[in-house]
Amino acid sequence: MNIPKEVLEIADGIRSMKIRGAGRIARSAANALKIASEMYTGNTLNEYIEYIKTIADVLLNTRPTAVSLPNAINFVISRLMRKIDYISDVEEARNIVEGAASEFIVRSKEALKLIGVIGAKRIRDEDVILTHCNSSAALSVIMKAYEEGKNIKVFATETRPKFQGIITVKILASKGIDVTLIPDSAVRLIMKKVDKVIVGADAVAANGAVVNKIGTSQIALAAHEARVRVFVAAETYKFSPATVTGELIIIEERKPSEVVSTAFLEEHPKIRVRNPAFDVTPADYIDAIITEKGVIPPQAAILILKEEYGWVISDYLLRISSSEEGETTK
Ligand code: RI2
């Protein structure tokens, strides 16, 4: 099957982290489906469906942790599959896919804005905020609070090994916000000066645990010790329906060469280097999750999941029980 070069470039961009951040990954994946659909040259409906599903698989296999990626793809593909019995030609199928992809992108951007408006209400004048990595959702909250005239200070971690903290400090400084870059290892020391921690999320599990950039759980622990509130800013498409049925979120392990140079690795073949990209912060260490649907305690994640993904969860459960039935009748 011929996959357009533009789509392969997006998939490579996600894999290599040129395109990164859970929200941006999701929007890029939706956009890739749209581009693929627009570039389809055949005219058989079945072939088109196979083609779109292949593109979806290529995108799904780029990075494993951010649940925004499968949720974005599912948003588009499920709209096509729900109408499949009533679609008569490729043109109709294309309109559904391209329309759904555009709708996802628009909704995603709106969610980001709303999170800013809702989250900014939790920021007080003179607050000192600590953030980690580079999260557009967390930045939406911080920047909105600043726009509202609140005099805030921000500490941002470097976020080894990929240094996404540099992106964060550049963005905040360009808006005129008082921002200080700190090494990841300085978090516990700096926490004494901090009023609130605000981070993003790559995935939220049914039990309210948050998967975010490696180091987030240590920050939450230091905040807990210092009695500093921890807020997670996350769109509802970062909530994982699969976790309701017992699936675990896969923690991506990236190349050791992101941590030390290839020359170092070649020189010291006996030294093992690990590079887990994410960690899990249990619900007990999170005060609230700021979503576009409102601020919720992490323990209420299951309610968001049931409201937003009720049918996806029922579908999973149906598949599990029918495969179990198959097993027992064998
Ligand atoms: P937004 C990023 O992952 C960070 O972990 C960040 O907190 C999270 O995605 C959410 O980002 P990576 O792609 O969607 O840098 O809030 O590995 O921008």
Protein model, in words:
- With 330 residues, the chain is α/β, with parallel strands linked by helices.
- The protein has two domains: 109 residues, Four Helix Bundle (Hemerythrin (Met), subunit A) (Up-down Bundle), CATH 1.20.120.420; 190 residues, Translation initiation factor eif-2b, domain 2 (Rossmann fold, 3-Layer(aba) Sandwich).
- The protein is built from eleven helices and ten strands.
- Strand 1, helix 6 and strand 2 form a beta-alpha-beta unit.
- It is globular and about 60 Å long.
- Bound molecules: 1,5-di-O-phosphono-alpha-D-ribofuranose (RI2).
- The site of 1,5-di-O-phosphono-alpha-D-ribofuranose has 16 residues, from helix 2, helix 6 and strand 6.
> What is the terminal-to-terminal distance?
36 Å
- The helix count comes to 11
Strand content is: 5-15%
Give the rounded overall mean pLDDT.
Answer: 96
Short structural summary:
By secondary structure, the protein is an alpha/beta fold.
Search tags:
Four Helix Bundle (Hemerythrin (Met), subunit A), 3-stranded antiparallel sheet, 7-stranded mixed sheet, 2 domains, Rossmann fold, about 325 residues, binds 1,5-di-O-phosphono-alpha-D-ribofuranose, alpha/beta, single chain
Question: How are the secondary structure elements laid out?
Answer:
Elements: H1 5-15, H2 22-38, H3 45-60, H4 68-82, H5 90-120, E1 128-131, H6 136-147, E2 153-157, H7 164-174, E3 178-182, H8 187-190, E4 196-199, E5 203-204, E6 210-213, H9 216-225, E7 229-233, H10 262-267, E8 278-281, E9 288-291, E10 294-296, H11 301-329
Parallel strand pairs: 1-2, 1-4, 2-3, 4-7, 7-9
Antiparallel strand pairs: 5-6, 6-8, 9-10
Helix pairs in contact: 1-2, 2-3, 2-4, 2-5, 3-4, 4-5, 5-6
The protein binds 1,5-di-O-phosphono-alpha-D-ribofuranose (RI2).
